[in-house]
Amino acid sequence: MKKYLAVWALLLVLTAVEVVLAYLHTPPAIMLALLIGLSLVKAGSIVAWFMHLAEEHRALAWTLIPAFFFIALILLGILPDASRAGGVLPR
Q1: Left (φ > 0), alpha (ψ -120 to 50) or beta: where does 25 sit?
Q2: CA–CA separation, 6 vs 9, rounded Å?
Q3: Is the sign of the CA dihedral 16, 22, 25, 31 positive or negative?
Q4: Biggest alpha carbon distance in the chain?
Q5: CA 54, CA 6: separation in Å to the nearest integer?
Q6: How does DSSP classify residue 51?
Q7: Is residue 25 within 8 Å of residue 32, measured between CB atoms?
Q8: What DSSP line would sit under 58-75, residue for residue?
Q9: Contact at 8 Å (CB) between 34 and 21?
Q10: How far is residue 91 CA from its own chain's centroid?
Q11: Which residues contact 53 (CB under 8 A, 6 or more apart)?
Q12: Cα radius of gyration (the chain)
C-alpha cells in the first residue's frame, strides 16, 4: 500500500508542477518540452506500478518498446498536417 501512495504522491506533485508551469508564463517551446517530459514520467509510473508491469518479467516490458516507436512514427507522420492547421483553426 505504501508503494501506491508514493506513486500517487509523485503523480500529484508532477501534476502540480505542470499547473505551475502554466501560471509562470514560460516560453512555449520550453513549456512544451517540460510538459512532454513530465507526461512521459507520469505515464511510465502509471504503467509500471498501477498496471503492475514493474513486477512482470522483463520480456513483457520489452515488447512495449516496438509499440512505442510505432506510435512515435505514426505521430511524426501526421505532424506536417498539424503544422499546416495553424492557419486554418479559428483564433
Answers
A1: left
A2: 5
A3: positive
A4: 50
A5: 15
A6: S
A7: no
A8: HHHHHTHHHHHHHHHHHH
A9: yes
A10: 27
A11: 47, 60, 61, 64
A12: 17
- The amino acid that residue 83 corresponds to is S
The type of residue at 47 is V
Does the global pTM surpass 0.70?
A: no
Amino acid occupying residue 23: Y
Which set of grid coordinates corresponds to residue 4?
Answer: 501506491
List the alpha helices (DSSP H) in the chain: 2-23, 28-45, 58-62, 64-84
Question: Which 8-state DSSP code applies to residue 10?
Answer: H
Residue type, 63: T
DSSP letter (8 states) at residue 54: G
pLDDT tens digit sequence for 35-80: 989 998 999 888 888 877 777 777 776 887 888 889 889 888 887 7
